[in-house]
Design a protein that fits this description.
Length: about 375
């Protein structure tokens, strides 16, 4: 597989790196400590062209594809995993779903707003009693004369505290699961307060309650009963984004560990001269590089229009476990300073864990991989 990035892809990744260094890095600690959703940073990211990266140019997006998008998400996550999560959900779950299955009207009316950053999107699939097992979803969409009435509660909705539009999955009688676009301003939409969490504290995760929320039929995404297909495709792409987020976190761990290994002296020498420390650094670098190659492979397959369920699960599993290992080793290299809140290693340590859970746990990725290779 050829990974020579085009000039356009290189330019997006360079621009994302510059944006992240200038705007995101100085805010990362405060975002983590206060848990405040950085809506202004999302607007700034949109102004830098990072809100509609994978949206066709005809609808106001960059038309850059998933590979450029994951390169950008890695750059942003390297400075702030919350900001990386915000961009990955908006670009690779919400814009992805509306781009691929939205009607012409939805693309014109909604996708344009998402791509320009006028609207922030959120993806509401999981529920308090349904995470790995989508067959347990309880939210319903009942047919009414004007369209549908949605009732139920969604959990862990990233971007939820600030989102303008939600992609919501609900049961439509015997038809199975169906996807809908729900604007925040609709009656019956109740957005909860931020769900307190270990990491990615500024990603606006919350509960979303749909209390008899009525929406017109034109807000349905795809056909009735198409929900599982739409969710699965979006999850395939979103998981590549989580992999990129994990690589960004892993890279931050490695960079901080390398700096420390060069400057911290014990026993009359830099600790980077101890073989035990060198091996940790070598393992981290190897893990991160392998994870990036698998992630780019999955993104490349998606950009070529190929099925990428296997590649996406492999990338997410590898990258998330690499990030968790990198944050543990990074903390070990920094010793007590890594454990201190004065260094960002403890934030990387907390942030890395969610990548093994969000959008399908590592166990679910292993099940997916096994099912694909046994088929
Ligand atoms: C910070 C954060 C952000 C999130 N953002 C979003 C979002 O934007 N949109 C959204 O829809 N969801 C989101 N989620 C939800 C996330 O996708 C789910 O938490 C995840 O799919 C796991 O579901 P669960 O938490 O219900 O765990 P469960 O499904 O209850 O699983 C619990 C444990 O059992 C294991 N397990 C379950 N089933 C099996 C099985 N069949 N075989 C083997 N092991 C199994 C799991 O691996 C896990 O270890 C987010 C979650 C977090 C923590």
């Amino acid at each position: 597989m050829n990974f020579d990035l085009t000039q356009g892809q290189q330019e997006i990744i360079r621009r994302a790196g510059e944006f992240a260094e200038r705007h995101v890095a100085p805010r990362a600690v405060a975002i983590d400590r206060t848990g405040e959703f950085p809506r202004d940073l999302f607007q700034a990211a949109a102004a830098a062209g990072l809100a509609g990266l994978n949206v066709p140019v005809a609808y106001g997006g960059g038309g850059q594809g998933v590979l450029a998008c994951v390169g950008a998400i890695e750059e942003v996550s390297r400075r702030c995993a919350s900001s990386g999560a915000i961009l990955l959900v908006h670009n690779l779950l919400v814009c992805e779903a509306v781009s691929t299955v939205g009607s012409e009207h939805q693309r014109d009316a909604v996708l344009r707003k998402l791509a320009s950053g006028e609207w922030l999107g959120a993806f509401a699939l999981a529920e308090p009693e349904a995470g790995s097992d989508l067959s347990s979803l309880q939210t319903t969409a009942a047919r009414i004369a004007s369209g549908y009435r949605l009732s139920g509660a969604k959990a862990w909705v990233t971007n939820g505290t600030s989102a303008d539009a939600f992609v919501v999955f609900a049961k439509t009688g015997d038809a199975g699961l169906t996807a809908f676009l729900v604007e925040r301003t609709r009656g019956g939409v109740r957005v909860g307060t931020r769900t307190e969490s270990l990491g990615v504290c500024g990603s606006g995760c919350c509960e979303l309650v749909l209390d008899g929320c009525e929406i017109p039929a034109e807000n349905r995404l795809g056909a009735e009963g198409d929900g599982i297909r739409i969710a699965s495709r979006a999850l395939d792409t979103g998981r590549i984004g989580v992999a990129a987020q994990a690589i960004g976190i892993g890279r931050a761990c490695l960079e901080q560990a390398l700096d420390y290994a060069r400057t911290r002296r014990q026993g009359g020498q830099a600790i980077g001269e101890f073989q035990a420390v060198q091996w940790m650094l070598a393992d981290m670098a190897t893990d991160i590089d392998a994870a990036r190659l698998l992630t780019w492979k999955a993104a490349s397959a998606r950009d070529q229009g190929l099925a990428c369920t296997l590649e996406s699960a492999v990338a997410k599993l590898t990258a998330s476990e690499a990030a968790v290992r990198a944050s543990g080793k990074g903390m070990q290299v920094l010793g007590s300073r890594g454990y201190s809140r004065q260094h960002s290693m403890e934030r990387f340590f907390r942030d890395s864990k969610v990548t093994e859970i969000d959008l399908g746990s590592s166990d679910i990725q292993r099940l997916t991989i096994a099912a694909q290779i046994l088929a």
